[in-house]
Design brief:
Layout (H helix, E strand, L loop, with lengths): L1 H58 L3 E5 L3 E4 L5 E7 L13 E4 L4 E4 L5 E8 L3 E11 L3 E4 L3 E16 L2 E2 L5 E2 L11 E5 L2 E2 L3 H9 L6 E7 L2 E7 L2 E2 L5 E2 L2 E16 L4 E4 L15 E15 L7 E7 L6 E9 L2 E6 L1 H4 L7 E2 L10 E7 L4 E11 L10 E5 L2 H7 L3 E2 L5 E4 L2 E10 L2 E9 H4 L3
Parallel strand pairs: 1-7, 21-28
Antiparallel strand pairs: 2-5, 3-4, 3-6, 6-7, 8-18, 8-24, 9-12, 9-18, 9-20, 10-11, 12-13, 12-14, 14-15, 16-17, 18-19, 19-23, 20-21, 20-22, 22-23, 25-26, 25-29, 26-27, 27-31, 29-30, 30-31
Amino acid sequence: MRQFTDNVKRQAGEDMAQLLSGWKRKRKRIRIYRGCLIAALFLSCAALGGTGYYYIDSSIPSTMYVRAGEEQTFHLGVPAKAEIVSVGTQGTSNIPKNAITIDLNQPVKMRTGGLEKYLMEVRLFGFLPFKQVGIEVVEEQELIPVGAPVGIYVKTDGILVVGEGEFLNEAGVKCAPSKYILKSGDYIQKLNGEEVSEKDVFIESIENCGGKEIVLTVERNGEIMDLKVQPVRDQNGKYKIGAWVRDNAQGVGTMTYIDENGNFGALGHGINDLDTSTLMNTNDGTLYQTEIVDIRKGSSGNPGEMTGLIVYANDRILGDITENSERGIFGSCNQKALGLATKEPVPIAFKQEIKKAPAQILCTVDGNTRYYDVEITALHLDHDNVNRGIELKITDPELLEITGGIVQGMSGAPIIQDGKFIGAVTHVLIQDSTKGYGIFIENMLEH
């Protein structure tokens, strides 16, 4: 009987121990679940806050342009208030010298006089300091939209290094003299103190160096440096340094505009090197007349392309390229290029005037330069990537039939809305060729 009682007690103790252990494990799991829930809630709030911050920030431009002497209305639609104060010459304006407060969640009417400057201090919800916005008063400006395809040829400023490579020396052993010395993206300006700009001349100079160590003057990320390289003779008896180089780039794009002074802008983005993916430092370049000879339609995951025939002849030259920047290529037109400007000049629209609404792009895909319908789907008035401020979708059935949407070579096509020049096409969305991006014309003119 006692043994039975002891067994019962022991069993009860074990059951109680298991119960307590299970209860502790359950409490631990509850604590873990609670911690995970709190962490998830915190991350969700942080993500929501970050998204909200990005949306509001991209809805307020860092700089706003307004036309002198004209009453304009803008509506940013953000939960913020702002104080505007004049920091420039006073003119006939409805903005007094002392600060005035406006509600950015409501339409704001503004009229300025002379070429004044203002500063707008933005506060979220009326009290949280957010950002400063410069307001500049400018004269009315008109541009001729072009939309014609052009051939592009640019010379690099120096010899561009696109990579380092190995080769077999006289003994059949792999060697790479430039490895750890030159870097992809370097621009070789001089060889032994002599300026170099032609790839063929550069290669020939190395082949004829007699095996002596050479000194290369290189620009790397804006810094000039001298680098020593020891050429090595290959199996054909020629001296090499094991570097892939180029001195020019070619391609096809679209001319965006011609201004009143006969200057042009094209592409809406810069010319990047295919191998280094960096903006090319260019010394000079030439714009050529071209005809589109083939179009490969775009589809999901496969961007299309317009192939142009470029004849590098003097009678095909349209002008000189003087600048390659992230906002496009720019230069001066000749009389032949001015003949492409078949449209009438139109006034430009500033960022705050553009609407998420139908618009048109001007391009040449079938031999004729004409307008095609698009839809502006989103606007990023202040954006880190200057070439993607406008989001658009091709809606024109005819253009969709011919190209499938936006294709390579269409970069620079003017975008027109309500009779005003608002921007240029820059990129296609790889996953959906009917959608893409554009640059604001005011950003393009800031080059």
